[in-house]
Amino acid sequence: MQWFIEHLSAMTPLGAYMWLAGILLLCGLGLPIPEDVSLLAAGYFAYKGVLHLHRAFAVCFTAVLLGDTFAFFMGRWFGRRVLGSPWARRYFTPRRQRRVRAYFRKFGSKVVFLARFTPGLRFSIFFSAGTLHLRPSVFFIYDTLAAAISVPVLVYVAWFFGGQIDRVVMMARHTEHGILVALSIVGIVFLIRAYRRRQRPALVEDPPLD
Fold first, then answer.
1. Distance from the CA of 79 to the CA of which of 22, 53, 90, 128 falls in 20 to 30 A?
2. pTM for the complete prediction?
């Protein structure tokens, strides 16, 4: 995160807002930079007085939603064509495609809400939601609800504890890992239950009495 802070420090406030918005948009499109770095940096620079706190939050929140929405509509418009290309299969492998579809089968549209807290799969899930033609209104509702939790928590916590930003970054990483572990456990439980249901012998009904 240090290089990110040093880069922002050399910018004007307007340039910093634009940089944050641009990075978060690209994160929504799969850029391999942790989204939480930008959100924590926004809160930290608000703590330093460089940025206005609520304005920084509004910029980050809008950019996050736009990035997610772009990923969704990319899948809706170009998904099937893109997934058939050799380049896409390297990043979004058939195995990962099966995993994402399994999430949708298990959790339905609520997987969009969960995806906001799973950085490694976020773009893949949003792209798949578009490819599977999830209703845009459903996607936007669940994504907005999730972003209304994740974005303000990171921005305002970094602002409130700006003097201990290194500890905040470490806590955010641990929390993120904890969420991933919890979601993995939930997925395993669902898979075990589904397997057990398939293994149960069908009940034979008693013949009707004469």
1. 22
2. 0.72
